[in-house]
């Protein structure tokens, strides 16, 4: 899969959206949470992922090129909300009530768990799973073993079993 070159204007628009939503959240929460790092290395079919320990948001450049507005309006707030929830509440369920509250009451964005994008351009060679602390990409082979009930995989960091997203 080739990674497209992202136009600077698009990167700036995404960065602007991130700063805007962060400022809004800090104002409402009365905090001064720092700005997460944005990286464009998400692969597979996920639009983006939030990495708690490294406090970064990884965005899928292929899907971002094809769904620019949705990334700015939805994907960036969605992943930012994961990081803010972690800062504000500690470890809680990834899309639980805290995250919903963060999305809707604080960031003012409808809380949808997933994004509906055309995925033809991103080869489906991995499957997104989650534990308590991060997202994992499982290979087709491992994914099939989970589906058939032959294996359970655990996160080496938190020790929790991986659950399909
Ligand atoms: Zn999420
Ligand atoms: Zn984990």
From TrEMBL:
One of its GO terms (molecular function) is zinc ion binding. Its cofactor is Zn(2+). Coiled coil: none annotated. Its main location: cytoplasm. InterPro entries: SprT-like_domain, SprT_Zn_ribbon, Uncharacterised_SprT. One of its GO terms (cellular component) is cytoplasm. Residues 16-165 form the SprT-like domain. Keywords: Cytoplasm, Hydrolase, Metal-binding, Metalloprotease, Protease, Zinc. It is found in: Cytoplasm. The active site is at 79. Pfam families: SprT-like, Zn_ribbon_SprT. One of its GO terms (biological process) is response to stress. Binds 1 zinc ion. It comes from the Bacteria. Zn(2+) binds at residues 78, 82. HAMAP family: SprT (MF_00746). Belongs to the SprT family. This is Protein SprT. It comes from Lelliottia wanjuensis. The lineage of its organism: Bacteria, Pseudomonadati, Pseudomonadota, Gammaproteobacteria, Enterobacterales.
């Amino acid at each position: 899969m080739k990674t497209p070159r992202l136009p600077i204007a698009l990167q700036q628009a995404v960065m602007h959206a991130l700063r805007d939503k962060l400022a809004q959240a800090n104002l409402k929460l009365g905090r001064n949470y720092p700005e997460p790092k944005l990286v464009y290395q998400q692969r597979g079919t996920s639009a983006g992922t939030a990495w708690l320990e490294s406090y970064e948001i990884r965005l899928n450049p292929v899907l971002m090129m094809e769904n620019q507005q949705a990334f700015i309006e939805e994907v960036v707030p969605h992943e930012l909300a994961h990081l803010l929830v972690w800062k504000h509440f500690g470890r809680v369920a990834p899309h639980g009530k805290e995250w919903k509250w963060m999305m809707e009451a604080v960031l003012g964005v409808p809380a949808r768990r997933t994004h509906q994008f055309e995925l033809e351009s991103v080869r489906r060679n991995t499957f997104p799973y989650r534990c308590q602390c991060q997202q994992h990409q499982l290979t087709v082979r491992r994914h099939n073993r989970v589906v058939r009930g032959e294996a359970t995989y655990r996160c080496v960091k938190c020790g929790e079993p991986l659950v399909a997203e």
